[in-house]
Amino acid sequence: MFKKLLNVVLVVLAGGLILSACQPVATPAPVAATQALKIEPTLAPGSVQLVAQGATFPLPVYDVWTKSYQFVDPAVNLTYAGTGSGAGKKAIVDGTVDFAGSDSVLKDEYKTVPDLQMLPTLAGAVVPIFNLQSTEKDANGNAVAITALVLDRQTLADIYQAKITKWNDPSITKLNPTLVGKLSDATITVVHRADSSGTTEIFTKALASFSADWLAKVGAGASTVEWPVDKNGNGIGGKGNPGVAVAVQNTTNSIGYVELAYAISNKIPFAKLINKAGKAVTADADSLASAMGDFANAFDDRLNATIVDGSGAGSWPISGYTYLIVRTQSMKDCVKAQKVVEYIKWTLTDTRAGKIASDLGYSLLPQAVLDKVMGKLNAITCNGAVVSK
To answer: What homologous superfamily is domain 125-294 in, according to CATH?
Structure first.
């Protein structure tokens, strides 16, 4: 009976994402669905409150997971706030959260808290979303929306470097012969993240691999950027993946970058990309799996790995792992430590949790990567004792 109830809850929460596709993405859909149905699990006496925050890249699936888990373990009340990777990293260092989410790798943070460990949970695609109108008119005289677009690696970098500023630029029309005469000379409004962002770190690593000029003038892998388009006057910022998605939705002739789930759940068109192998690819589970395969042996001891711009024929070029960050030795509350480990293991191994992630466009970890993560989880200690049962 309990398993049936959980399955119903998972379906309802995941369905909320689909039903909200036409709604503004600033409010994650699962919250609205849960509130509408008044699903409020009764917490057992002595329940444990777990608090987490960080990356918005995985927020659509984390939101469903955290709500669903209260039906898996009613003793756990778990919240995850999408505040951005930078805020998540700061919170885990400051000790104000029990674990954090980040798409941005840790660096100097290890100097303050040496036992921090990054745990890949999923891989996701960063996609160029767009809001583009054709020069053609419909029967009512309204501009027709363009819903299919192809870009290559250099062209995308040039758009964000303000070298390409018009939609009918020859570099774009050459890649889209069916749109010749339909692309206008409208200025491209370029949307980017305004906050410290792991999504931006993945995106700029990719742009630096795509363009030697971007690498030399802007750099690679920064979570905050001095955007050339801002200096040129055609750039605008949005907070979090939801903020970028809303800005593109509300701005005609714009382009931006978000995690794939935000494009899927809100029906925002996103471009195909010509990858390093010269193939036009779409962001999906298969192209993400191909990207992970290109870098299967790239992990360091902290389980950091970059999976952008792989050489595989089917690889999506702007891919990245999203991570949970935990303390492996310095958690003081051993009950909480055990619950954190149990929750993370559930997200990685439960088939229903995996289906929700896949349906949202994320790619599950291959077995070799999953084994590495489970090994780190099983080694977490509290007050010198191993936490995992």
So the answer is: Periplasmic binding protein-like II (3.40.190.10)
